[in-house]
Amino acid sequence: MNATVSVSLALAGYSLMAQYLGIITPLQLFELARPTHPLMRQLLLKAPGTYHHTLLLANMAERAAEAIGADPLLARVAAYYHDIGKTTQPYFFIENQTDNHNPHDELNDPYESARIVINHVYDGMALAQKYRLPRQIADVIPQHHGTMLVAYFYHRAREQTPAGEVAEKYFRYPGPRPQSAEAAIIMLADGTEATVRATRPTTLEELDEVMRKIFRDRLLSGELDECALHLRDLDRIRKAFLEILQGQFHPRITYPGTSLPEPSRGVWLEGATIPEKEK
After folding, report:
1. In this predicted structure, what is the pLDDT of residue 180?
2. H-helix or E-strand containing 278?
3. In a domain, 224, yes or no
4. Is 10 inside any structural domain?
5. Maximum CA pair distance of the chain?
6. Over the stretch 90-111, which tens digit does the pLDDT of each residue have?
7. Phi first, then psi: what are they for 148, rounded to 5°?
8. Is the pLDDT assigned to residue 234 strictly greater than 60?
9. Structural domain for 190, as ranges
10. The model's pTM
11. Which residues contact 7 (CB under 8 A, 6 or more apart)?
12. Is residue 3 part of a domain?
């Protein structure tokens, strides 16, 4: 009895000390990883497509974190919560649309569509505060999009503007850019998974090409400038993603004498990058 009480008091003291110091403990992470956590339940019930997206992302992030010596458990749990803001307006995100009905088509307003898409970050931050998620988890919610452009609706706005002049500020995520290796991994995983879903590569070569483009875009746009990743880390992350995605999408190997088919044109997916030849 005394031993049980002592252990309980020690664990409580450990948790309080970690909270005071701003440290996240493995016990906290395991608790947050439970599928019965209220936010995870909300995600499953309100945005099931997003829920399954986060499960795949969690596998990708954990494997990549292992590959570069980052924190695999933190990366996995942060991936679980990175898109919780989509529970507010789930059907504006294509992974949750089950009947080919896209409410963005009814809006026909790229500014409003971009606002709704970007708002899932603010909604996610509000939920993180409400449910008292640790800072290391909550920070990934805005950082996994950084200051990227919601390109699809930005280009639609330009098409609808006679002079083609559109202020980018209405179509950019608020940031900040990823500040940790784990946040950067989730940014890369999010863009990779969305683009793979959009383009449906049929060979390992196409899958690798998609990933290289995502990584190059994020690197050249400066989104990875504020985290401690090196080029060798990016190569290891890409290979880790390939291990997970080839098991998920089953792309075939291209044998000598065969040609690569053109990737299929995908619908808009939040976070996706469509190869240049498809734009």
Report:
1. 98
2. none
3. yes
4. no
5. 77
6. 999 999 998 888 999 999 999 9
7. -65, 160
8. yes
9. 33-278
10. 0.86
11. none
12. no
